[in-house]
Amino acid sequence: MDRQFYAMLSRMKYINRWALMRNTREENICEHSHEVAVLAHALALLHNRRFGGHADPGRCVLLALYHDAPEILTGDLPTPVKYDNPAIREAYRQVEEVAADRLLSLLPEELRPDYAGLLKDDGTAAEERRLVKAADKLSALIKCVEELRQGNREFAQARLSTERAVRAMGLSAANCFLDEFLPAYELTLDEQGR
Length: 194
Hints:
Layout: H1 5-9, H2 29-51, H3 57-66, H4 71-74, H5 79-82, H6 86-104, H7 112-119, H8 126-149, H9 156-168, H10 172-180, H11 189-192
Helix pairs in contact: 2-3, 2-8, 2-10, 3-8, 6-7, 8-9
């Protein structure tokens, strides 16, 4: 049983996001985690170079790659459900904790400490975790922008509330990304190349 971790991780591609919304293109947690890793790396670099931060960009990438891994076992609980009620939020946190422990049990004993801090918040890397959280929200915002570009008005309110949520984090690097880099996601391929 302690050799199934990587095979289980490969199942991330089967867990779709945005279950309550009509999508022009489905998104799974595998591709989402990759995008969050790219964004978290960018935010860490901006945070360090422009705003005097001391985040470890590599740690941000790793945390982002594994941030939704417990959803392999739990599925993706839609945001309106997850955050609507403090009791539900706490119960889901506990479910995710059990799922993370289950994933860790699929590793050989000697590798578990290396993954524990990636699958569970062990109280370390607070600066990096904050950047990953912002990157996670930015990824959701980018999904909204992409859906709206395809004429899917289903994501109009989600776009507004997600951008507000990113700004409310008060993270200079995230606000910088919104102002400088997000507009390019509105462009076509031909427009981006100019």
